[in-house]
Structures are given as structure tokens and as C-alpha cells.
Specification:
mainly beta; about 10% helix
Length: about 290
């Protein structure tokens, strides 16, 4: 029974919705993902409280109507070789963030229908130090009440407009994140990200900067990102404001000669085109969030 459940969990955690361009991600140079308790993340601790992971209701079961349990699954357990965090619990398959106490924003490919809204919940405070017992409290879990607006389409330039605005079933009693409403971030500006790469407990991604911000809808940055990061807020490291929504990038893994998957890593100063393009981030100023707050 556990093997059946494990297979189901793997499928749910790693089945980000396929669209015209693969929404996978990768590592640039060193792996710059850190726990939220790391000193590098200190400035963004408050913002992290407004970030949640999407979790299928099929992998949670109620213990006493106030607590919920989930099965343990790890990267080691599914044969992923190398990288940090290999034995940590996996659970969310997308990330989202609050812009008010009950309105959450994510990638459009993470919430494509009311059926998806009904079959998934949003879990806050899924951090490594709280996963040892594999228990979630009811106050961490919020249902998706309705999709206020969702877009998933390509532009003439081959970019993607990819976002969803969601109404939660009740107030989270948490603050919405501050976000850019006019202008755009400049090239070479430092950015950071918070989310759930590969379904892991919340991670802070640092040491990245903007490659290009000339496109109307998207900007590119060398953030270390993976499936599960889709919908993550990308912050201006200097101002602390959200600049955009992480939506897609290069492939997560490559296989060695034995067929074992390893993290897809771009070495520093690599000439490969994918290493100099970066991850796609939808510019938050064009989503029109002010109309829904």
C-alpha cells in the first residue's frame, strides 16, 4: 500500500502542468538555495509568512479535524542524485503568495480550472524545522474558494502571460506582500526568491540578478529554480518588493550514462545559450492586482 501511495505522491508532486514551453528550471553556478532560518534570508522572514505551497487534497488525511498527516517522500527516495536537501520531505507542487489577507497570486499553469481550485489547498509555514512529524495544522491550510482571474497565453514575442489570482476560503490574518505597480526593474539589479523547489520545504534563493528586463511582460534572472517554484514571488533584494512571478525556465535534470538524473547545473560563465538566458519571470506590474484589492 505504501508503494502505491508513494507512486501517487511522486506523480502529484512532480506533475506541473505541461504547456507549449517546458516550465522546468535549473541551477546557475553554485546552488544558492537556503533555509529560511539562514542568515541570508533574515531580511525576508516577514515576507515568507505570506507565501504558501499548493498541495493536493489527495495526499492529506485528517487525524482529528484539526491536524492532517502526509506520507514521507524525499529526493533520495525517488532516485535523484546530488544536490542539497535530498532527505527532506516533499509536498507542494506550486508556490503562491498573498497580496491581501485572502487573495493569493500564483502562476496561471498552477491553477487552470475551478476543478483544480477545488482539489488543491494552500499550505503556509511549510518549513524544514516543522516537517519531522509530517503534520499540518488546520490553521496552516486554506482552500481555494474561486479563481478571480487566470491567464495563460503566449505573446507575439514568444513570451508567456501566465498568472492566476485566487480567492481563499477565509482570511489568513497575514499581510499581503508589497509589489511594484509602475516602472520595471533594471538589468543587473539583485533579486531573490522564496518558494518550494521540487516540493521541498520553503527555500530562500539568493545571489541572482536580472539578465534582461526589456520585454513588456517578462524579465529574466539567473535564479536557481525548479518545478514547485512556479508561482514563487521574485523580490527586488534592495526594496523588498515583489517584481514578478516565477513561471518557467530550463530543464531541472539531466541523466548520466547510467540513466541516473542529476541536477542540471550551468557552470559560471558558460557559453551555452540556456545558461545566459535565465528563468522567465512575469512582471507583476502588468497583472493589474490593484483592481482586485
Amino acid at each position: 500500500m505504501k508503494n502505491i501511495y508513494a507512486c501517487a505522491l511522486i506523480a502529484l508532486v512532480f506533475s506541473n502542468i505541461a504547456i507549449a514551453k517546458n516550465p522546468d528550471k535549473m541551477i546557475y553556478g553554485e546552488d544558492n538555495r537556503y533555509e529560511m532560518r539562514d542568515f541570508r534570508a533574515h531580511k525576508f522572514i516577514e515576507q515568507s509568512k505570506s507565501i504558501a505551497g499548493r498541495v493536493s487534497t489527495e495526499v492529506l488525511w485528517s487525524i482529528d479535524n484539526k491536524t492532517f498527516h502526509y506520507e514521507y517522500m524525499s529526493l533520495d527516495g525517488i532516485g535523484i542524485s546530488g544536490g542539497n536537501f535530498s532527505r527532506q520531505s516533499l509536498l507542494p507542487d506550486c508556490t503562491g503568495f498573498l497580496v491581501s489577507e485572502d487573495i493569493l497570486v500564483t502562476a496561471g499553469h498552477c491553477m487552470m480550472s475551478q476543478e483544480e481550485c477545488d482539489k488543491n489547498v494552500w499550505v503556509f509555514d511549510f518549513v524544514e524545522e516543522k516537517t519531522s512529524k509530517r503534520i499540518l495544522k488546520q490553521e496552516q491550510i486554506f482552500k481555494c474558494k474561486e479563481i478571480i482571474k487566470q491567464e495563460l497565453e503566449s505573446t507575439e514575442e514568444g513570451k508567456y502571460i501566465d498568472y492566476a489570482i485566487i480567492k481563499l476560503d477565509r482570511s489568513t490574518q497575514r499581510k499581503g506582500l508589497k509589489f511594484r505597480t509602475t516602472g520595471t526593474i533594471a538589468k543587473d539589479e539583485p533579486v531573490v526568491m522564496i518558494g518550494h523547489p521540487m516540493g521541498l520545504p520553503m527555500k530562500f534563493t539568493a545571489d541572482a540578478y536580472v539578465f534582461d528586463s526589456t520585454d513588456k511582460w517578462t524579465l529574466q534572472a539567473n535564479l536557481d529554480a525548479f518545478q514547485g517554484n512556479s508561482g514563487s514571488p521574485v523580490f527586488n533584494e534592495t526594496t523588498g518588493e515583489v517584481e514578478g512571478i516565477l513561471v518557467r525556465g530550463s530543464e531541472d535534470f539531466v541523466e548520466d550514462e547510467q540513466g541516473v538524473p542529476h541536477y542540471n547545473i550551468c557552470p559560471e560563465q558558460s557559453p551555452l545559450p540556456e545558461c545566459n538566458y535565465g528563468e522567465d519571470i512575469l512582471k507583476i506590474e502588468h497583472v493589474g492586482l490593484q483592481n482586485y484589492l
